[in-house]
Each structure stands twice: as C-alpha cells, then as structure tokens.
C-alpha cells in the first residue's frame, strides 16, 4: 500500500505517492527499497499572485533512484518538486 503525503508550496498542491519495491539478490534476504512519484497542480493562478511559465499540472518521479526508507524517498522527491516549482516562476 503506498504512503501518500500531501503538501502545498507557493500556491501549488502537491501529492506524493511512495511505494516499496522488493529487491531480491540471489539468496540474500529481501530488502525494501522505496521510490515515489508526485503530482503538482496550481491551486489557482489568481490566488498565488505569481505568474508562472507553465501552470499546467506537473508529474515528477525519482526515475531509477531508490531509497532505504520511505521518509528519505519522500524528502528527496519533495525537494525535487519544490525546485521545479521555483524554476516555473517568472
């Protein structure tokens, strides 16, 4: 079951879904690795008061990056989402 975190940043609503992958390597015990994806959408252009280069909904992933804990995974993706939102500001 995915762990879901919701946040708001600079007038954007962010939802992150973090899931555990199972990694099997030979006879070694299985270790969980976490990855996530995020959906960010502008709440309302007029509410934020900012002008955005691209106000469409954004989907962000960690690509092939995995983390040993859900907390580390979510923290990294949230930082990536905030960096993207900052880059979209004119």
- Helical fraction: 25-40%
Number of strands: 4
Q: How many helical stretches?
A: 2
Q: Bin the strand percentage.
A: 35-45%
Shape category: elongated
User: What strand line-up does the widest sheet have?
Assistant: 1-2-3-4
- Please tell me the overall pLDDT: 84
Distance between the termini: 38 Å
Task: Encode the helix/strand succession as letters.
Answer: EEEHEH
Please state the CA-atom Rg, rounded to the nearest Å: 16 Å
Unreliable runs: none
Summarize the biggest pleated sheet. 4 strands, antiparallel
Quickly give the structural class. alpha+beta
Feature tags:
alpha+beta, elongated, four-stranded antiparallel sheet
Can you walk through the features of this model?
It contains two helices and four strands; from the N terminus they run βββαβα. A four-stranded antiparallel sheet has the order 1-2-3-4, covered by helices on one side. The protein starts with a strand and ends with a helix. It has 90 residues and is of the alpha+beta class.
């Amino acid at each position: 079951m995915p762990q879901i975190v919701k946040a708001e940043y600079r007038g954007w609503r962010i939802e992150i879904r973090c899931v555990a992958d199972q990694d099997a390597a030979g006879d070694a015990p299985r270790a969980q690795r976490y990855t996530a994806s995020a959906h960010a959408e502008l709440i309302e252009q007029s509410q934020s008061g900012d002008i955005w280069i691209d106000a469409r909904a954004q989907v962000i992933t960690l690509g092939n990056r995995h983390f040993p804990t859900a907390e580390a995974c979510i923290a990294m993706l949230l930082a990536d989402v905030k960096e993207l939102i900052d880059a979209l500001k004119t």
